[in-house]
Amino acid sequence: MVKTSSFVALLPDGWRDLPFSHFREGVEIAQLRSADPAVALLRYKPGASVPHHEHTGLETILVLEGTQSDERGDYPVGTLVLNPKGSKHSVWSDRGCTVLIQWESPVYFTGDK
Fold it and tell me: Is residue 21 part of a domain?
């Protein structure tokens, strides 16, 4: 039998009560599902970033708070971003943000800028 998961009352503000832990410098994570596809909330402090990486599968991002940015633009609250397999970018937030994110498969950090 396939196990399903549900998270009641995440919106409008229930996600704020989830336990977050260190992910990267300036970025915290609340892991909702760790298996592929992985699902989590990422909370960026102002000025935090994630280095350049390539997607080995689809990445889906919904901006819940603040603005997330990459080389293609700025994504305010309510923006849904779909980064397909093979896409590359780095991510940052000048003023901080929280996103709901789903990775179909792990990302590959390229070391490029």
Answer: no
